Structures are given as C-alpha cells and as structure tokens.
C-alpha cells in the first residue's frame, strides 16, 4: 500500500483548508501531540520481530528518532490534510475543541498521549473495574465514545495493515533470515482478527478511563454528542487514516534502516 493508502476515498473538498489554518487546527485539536506520540511506538519494533533493541547496536535510538522525526510526520500529516480536509470540516472541529470543554479535553488527551502505556493500562483497568462495581454510567459512555472515534471500524484493519507492511519490509531488507509471503501473512493475521478486536476494545476502554477520569458524566456525554455529529465523524475518519498511514510508512522505513544496524555499532 503506497502513501495515503489508509486515506479513505473521500470527495475532495471544493475549497481545501489553508495551510496556516491547518497548523492552528493541529494545535487546537491536539492532533500535533497525537502525531508526536507516534514516535513512542518505535520502541516496539524489535519486539515485533522477536528481538531486542540491543540487537541493533548503539545507533538504534538515534536511527529510530530519525525515522520517527516529529517534523517529518508533521509535514506528512499537513500534506494529506491540505488535500483532503475541507475548510468547513476544519471550522466545525476547531470550534468545538476551542471551547472551554474542548480545551480541557485536549489538555487531558495530550497528557495521555505522552504517558507510559503500562501505567495507562494498569490505572485505566482499575478505574473501569471500580466504575463497573459502582454502576458508574461513564463506562458505557466511554464505550460509545470509543466507537464514535472509530465509527468506520478502521482500527483493526489498520493494525493488520501496519503489521503486514512492517513484516514484509523487514523480510525484504534482510533483517529476518527467512522470506515472508505477503498473501500467506495476511491469511495468518486474519485468523487472529477476532482476538485482536477484543484486545483493542479492552485496551481502548482502559485508555479512555485513564484519560477522562477527571471528567464528569455530563462532560463525557457532551463530548460523545460532539463526536457523533456527521461532520466530526468525517474529521475523525480522516485523522485516523492520517495517523495509520504515517505509522505504517514510518515502520516500513524503519525496517529498512534496521537492516544496516548491528550489535556493537558505534556512532
């Protein structure tokens, strides 16, 4: 799948948003921080191959940082959004996130993006268990919130595609000592789809509980209502596609760079 491969076929806007307004959009919605947090996933790359970062030498951290360079990912996102995000949709989303509730949500989401995943999952899972025991309505609202954020159900397909593109790139670059047939790999990954979907839902609920733990039921309901608006649905469909495409693209590039790294390699 080539660049923009995850971007769904949307009608191109009659008048695309101007680049300076896109910059403001990324900041007011917190999408700039979400993009930056993609780099945190680089640390998972060796583990996906059954290896450790030390297997790739002393230059591993610098290489991963270069591939997941924040400015590079920012530019990629801007290029896609400039072509696909209409001015009307930008205005609608920005108006909500610029509101007092919107800015509180962005502050919480930005902090959550950069928090340790293990901490988020642990604390979030504990909160969900506590709220379920108390009959707290926020659990069901957060489930609906997660569904609204990914109404197109693209999350599972995106994870599968990212895995395929990374493993195939790793095979072709010579990191692995065996060849991977892409069609066979897709069939194998497809077999685990049900389990992957459940795992993603459980993880997303724990993450949401952690992120929005200080918000009232009323606040979360208001957020859900905003996210379910048709315009916001289109915005999130596009933003999800942008994030997934950037992550897949960067993992492909990283696979190629990893092949040139060796244990003990110095700067």
Structure description:
There is one protein chain. The two termini are 33 Å apart. Helix 9 packs across helix 12 (193-211) and helix 10 (154-173) runs parallel beside helix 14. With 267 residues, the chain is mostly helical. The chain is 71% helix and 0% strand. The model is unreliable at 1-15 (pLDDT under 50). The protein has helices at residues 19-29, 31-37, 45-48, 60-67, 70-84, 87-97, 100-113, 117-134, 138-149, 154-173, 182-191, 193-211, 217-227, 230-258. It holds the Pfam family DUF2059. Residues 71-129 form the DUF2059 domain. This is DUF2059 domain-containing protein.
Which terms would index this structure?
267 residues; mainly alpha; 14 helices; globular
Q: Output the helix-strand order.
A: HHHHHHHHHHHHHH
Distance between the termini: 33 Å
Q: What is the general shape? A: globular
Task: Indicate the mean pLDDT.
Answer: 90
Poorly predicted spans? 1-15
- How many separate helices? 14
Q: How big is the Rg?
A: 19 Å
Largest sheet: none
Please tally the β strands and state the result: 0
Helix content: over 70%
Estimate what percentage of residues fall within beta strands. Answer: under 5%
Secondary-structure-based class equals: mainly alpha
